[in-house]
Amino acid sequence: MAASPVEYTIGGVKVHFPCKAYPSQLAMMNSIMRGLNYGQHCLLESPTGSGKSLALLCSALGWQQAQHAKQKEGGGHVGDKGQSEKNLGDCKKSESPTRCYCVCHSNADRAAVQPAGLDKETGQPLHTASEHVPSPGESQAKKPSLASRLSEKVQTSLDSDCEKDEDFRSDRKRLRTAGFKSQKRQRTQQGVIFIDDEPELEKETSDPQSWRTASSNQAAGLSSSCSASEPCSNCPCASAKDKLKDKDKDGRKKIPKIFFGTRTHKQITQIAHELKRTVYSGVHMTILSSRDHTCVNADVAPHFNRNERCKDLLEAKDGRSCRYYHGVQRMREQHTLQWVHGLREAWDIEDLVTLGKRLRACSYYAARELMQGASIIFCPYNYLLDPMIRESMEIDLAGQILVLDEAHNIEDCARESASYTLELATLQSSRDELDGMVNSNIRRSKHEPLRDFCYVLINWIQESQELLSERGFESASKVWSGKNTLSIFHSLGITADTFSNMKQNLASVLEKEERVGVVNGKEDMVLVPTIGSSTATVLKNLFMVLDYLYRDNCRFAEDYRVALQRSYTWTNQVPPDVPDARGFLVRPRARHRQSIRVKREVLTLSFWCLNPAVAFSDLSATVHSIVLTSGTLSPMASFSSELGVKFTIQLEANHVINKSQVWVGTVGAGPQGQKLCATFQHTETYTFQDEVGALLLHVCQVVSKGVLCFLPSYK
């Protein structure tokens, strides 16, 4: 490839490429431009080694820069502004809202008793087009971001930062409303080549009906359990109002961010290296990764349970806090990162970790903080597909560009992200913690339904053991279809309506708030206890699966299988101290105290998602564009069908090399004439090994630019 940079104009957008592009790269960039210009999804296949990553980066970042330039010139965003104004104009024409015939609004009796101008679902007055609709900029002021939360938390300690050790600083908690998480989600020159182209305190005025009572009032049958529990967004005026959410505080169209997903963290390193070669290397960026790769706290990083240890430090349960977390403000802004700390070009995870250690700041939360001002965000693509990871990382993909590179195994990742497996012992532990909250009268009305849900699930698992069939040595299982599981859950009192109530209860019990209490005889603000992170994770994952099962009138029920499995595992157990003849407990020395192997029964409940389209159903209708690339995607039609996404733009690019450059054959003998017979008895001989070594040496001397050699085994 030529070393001199070239500027291409593709689809009316200037793209700066670091070298002369291959035909396959030009074809890819042309397809990507069409997809981004028209908000369509792209499925692109290009052989390995043909420069896909470079084409993805340059075309996507070039398009993004062009949108920024248009916005500065007052041109707005391609094709969206006029349509939004047209939709709003349609809303202005009629005083009463247009009749909506979607499933959730089709109750004619309720519609008849509502006066004109009122919402048919809530009975509340509708906002007319002339009324003030708060812009996202205004709403952002009311939604504390991670930056504002960090700033507020450490503001009082900044002045004394050099004088006091922050290891033992207690963490003051603030009230976080139930909807906090969900609110967040909401030039022609020479050389240019043209290509065609919540309230303050929780007030309980009355005890809500338990989910058991609610279920008994419903009509029997599966249909009631699958009824839509939430209104849909298909109303004619809803789309126009949603358009307003995509604008910034100045009323301008928001420019989509680029979420660039790869299969592994190692591939992110390679992508960052490619980005450094381009003129876009100074773009505002961040890399999202796990604590395994970014934690710099010596009290947390060496341990296997880093997530739990980190959360315990942040909650200051033992009076200690994480001093690195308090230092995030030193590296949380893009401008500071580039012009104060020297990361002016594309950087990697190791660069951020090194900087975090030097500044004594948490690189894990700094990377999340940098996401707010970043134009491109790199991460493994399970961060984008898994709804639980998206929630914990506060990733909002609505209106954004989603690029998935090396996506040939994206189907497995999508199925896994919509599945969940838990052990009975884990569920029992969660039940016990919820039971403790109820017995301590802590948000009793909210914790009690969640505890009862765990009780019902545990009882069903234990009763179903007699249905297990032997499948192998010390293993047995029973598998139900999704529809059968919903029928069973309905008989247990778990329906779409009761599930909706439980989701609200879970959001309430996860709130963090302070109430007035008495500490050492003095009134002080006391943090209301909340359930632990492990119990919260269990409930969130269970609710994630149930949400898919009940969604859209149980549309995905047949895409699930629910399995109960019994197996056995061997664990080490230290024997108890044994009394001697005089009745004294005798404890052997540690080196003489040997553990014994104990066989333990394990019951596991699994929700298996069989259809990758379930996970993609969250994305395809909300993102601006999905660009999915790999070297092996064919057959394209079946791949697109399995994901349940309409890829309007598809490409199968040719390889960059000619057929004359390829030779496929077998080599039967080495340079010394020895026969190369790689059977077990021959591979152990020095004669064979020397001959293979001589052959590899000869190939490496003849073939320039490197050799890739595959062996049948590591040995």
UniProtKB/TrEMBL annotation:
PANTHER family: DNA REPAIR DEAD HELICASE RAD3/XP-D SUBFAMILY MEMBER (PTHR11472), FANCONI ANEMIA GROUP J PROTEIN (PTHR11472:SF47). Residues 69-96, 118-216 are annotated as: Disordered. Transmembrane segments: none annotated. Residues 11-454 form the Helicase ATP-binding domain. The keyword ATP-binding applies. Residues 207-216 have a biased composition (Polar residues). The keyword Nucleotide-binding applies. Residues 171-187 have a biased composition (Basic residues). The lineage of its organism: Eukaryota, Metazoa, Chordata, Craniata, Vertebrata. Keywords: ATP-binding, Hydrolase, Nucleotide-binding. This is Helicase ATP-binding domain-containing protein. Pfam families: DEAD_2. Residues 70-96 have a biased composition (Basic and acidic residues).
